């Protein structure tokens, strides 16, 4: 199913004027907010109209508000019970229907919005899914018509026709990391000192289908090591309020004497990563953001390893932690030089994705 990556030639202006359409983007999870900001800007710059919905889950709406994104809030999270997940997917698709009828989008775009894909499939609206995790699961009717994935997934078999698969260079975080500008005031906002070692800790997503309890074992071992190490502070980033309350109840020693800080509101993840000395995460996006910024990062994710992460490990940009012993032997508590500027050079991922979307519009013969 692999396809060669090719740069799409600029579209003839007269042809392009017939292909300016309304594109519906659904923000289903927190990482989708920074990811889609440059994509929205570029699509609008090329004349397309973009409309957005957002799921009331994790910090999606809070972060979207902070970034000044206009959206319609539809649906919420239904927990980790598999039956309720399927129910929530179906119900949110129904909740979308009035919005769909009102907006009449010509194309649906997302990074994993299964409810949006299901509804649009039923209504014969072309769907484009950008994803970087090949082990994700969904119900049969929620597979996209088109798929855009990182080139590290070349050769992997997906449930789309070979001629509807596109590969972009790099990782999805390359889309927005080049626009990052540090803000040193965040350290003071969180009560952290410049002479302290700061470690960002992201717990595993215990409500996700890919969750493996082994990740929690590694998290507890890591926090135990942090609590025993003088001069080290942890910034813990729970997935939601419920997870934070559970961790505070089960492990009060982590929070004693301010050893562990939990931001009181949604913060800019890239800025937090840049101001830290290292990152340890039980998820995917934060690990890859750190890798894209050149910050030392260790993954305690114990679900099926993504091809993207295997490549980052091969490139020595990410270290996978597979046992409690490796928490002590592989994770290096070393201060990082934060005086240098981040690498803001443009990367090909954004142009690849935008050009593929326009190619799909032309191929589908979509008109406004």
Overall, the morphology is: globular
Q: Which band does the percent of strand residues land in?
A: 15-25%
- Main β-sheet, spatial strand arrangement: 3-2-1-4-5-6-7
Low-confidence stretches: 1-15
The count of DSSP E runs of length 2 or more, i.e. the number of strands, is 13
Largest sheet: 7 strands, parallel
Rg, Å, rounded = 21 Å
Mean pLDDT: 91
**What is the share of helical residues?**
25-40%
Number of spatially distinct domains: 2
| DSSP summary: helix tally | 13
Q: What is the succession of H and E elements? A: HEHEHEHEHEEEHEHEHEHEHEHEHH
Ends distance? 31 Å
**The CATH homologous superfamily of the largest domain:** Glycogen Phosphorylase B
The name CATH uses for the topology of the largest domain is Rossmann fold
Report the structural category: alpha/beta
Q: What features would you highlight for this structure?
A:
7-stranded parallel beta sheet; Rossmann fold; 16% strand; alpha/beta; 2 domains
Q: Could you walk me through the main structural features you see in this protein, from its secondary elements to its overall organization?
A:
The chain has 368 residues and is of the alpha/beta class. It has two domains: 13-178 and 346-364, Glycogen Phosphorylase B (Rossmann fold), CATH 3.40.50.2000; 183-329, Rossmann fold (3-Layer(aba) Sandwich). It has helices at residues 13-16, 32-45, 60-66, 82-103, 114-122, 185-189, 214-228, 241-250, 269-274, 285-293, 307-314, 324-329, 348-364, and strands spanning 22-27, 49-56, 72-76, 107-110, 127-130, 146-150, 165-168, 197-202, 232-236, 260-261, 278-281, 297-299, 319-320. The radius of gyration is 21 Å and the shape is globular. Mean pLDDT is 91; it is low at 1-15.
């Amino acid at each position: 199913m692999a396809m060669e990556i090719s740069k799409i030639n600029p579209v003839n202006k007269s042809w392009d004027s017939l292909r300016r359409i309304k594109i519906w983007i659904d923000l289903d999870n927190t990482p989708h907010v920074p990811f889609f900001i440059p994509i929205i800007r570029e699509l609008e710059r090329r004349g397309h109209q973009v409309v957005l919905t957002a799921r009331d889950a994790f910090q999606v709406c809070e972060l979207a508000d902070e970034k000044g994104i206009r959206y319609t809030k539809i649906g919420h999270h239904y927990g980790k019970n598999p039956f309720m997940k399927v129910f929530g997917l179906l119900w949110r698709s129904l909740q979308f229907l009035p919005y769909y009828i009102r907006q009449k989008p010509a194309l649906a775009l997302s990074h994993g919005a299964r409810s949006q894909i299901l509804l649009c499939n039923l209504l014969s609206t072309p769907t484009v899914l950008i994803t970087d995790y090949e082990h994700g699961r969904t119900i049969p009717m929620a597979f996209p018509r088109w798929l855009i994935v990182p080139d590290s997934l070349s050769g992997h078999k997906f449930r789309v026709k070979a001629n509807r698969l596109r590969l972009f260079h790099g990782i999805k975080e390359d889309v927005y990391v080049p626009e990052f500008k540090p803000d040193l005031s965040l350290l003071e906002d969180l009560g952290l000192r410049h002479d302290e070692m700061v470690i960002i800790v992201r717990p595993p997503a215990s409500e996700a289908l890919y969750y493996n309890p082994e990740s929690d074992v590694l998290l507890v071992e890591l926090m135990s090591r942090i609590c025993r190490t003088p001069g080290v502070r942890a910034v813990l980033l729970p997935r939601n309020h419920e997870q934070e309350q559970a961790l505070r109840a089960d492990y009060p020693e982590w929070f004693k004497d301010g050893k562990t800080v939990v931001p009181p509101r949604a913060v800019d993840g890239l800025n937090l990563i840049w101001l830290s000395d290292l990152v340890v995460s039980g998820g995917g996006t934060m690990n890859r953001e750190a890798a894209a910024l050149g910050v030392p990062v260790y993954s305690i994710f114990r679900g099926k390893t993504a091809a993207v992460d295997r490549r980052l490990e091969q490139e020595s940009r990410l270290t996978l932690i597979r046992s409690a012993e490796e928490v002590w032997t592989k994770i290096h508590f070393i201060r990082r030089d934060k005086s240098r500027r981040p690498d803001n050079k443009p990367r090909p991922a954004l142009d690849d994705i935008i050009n593929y979307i326009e190619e799909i519009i032309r191929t589908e013969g979509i008109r406004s």
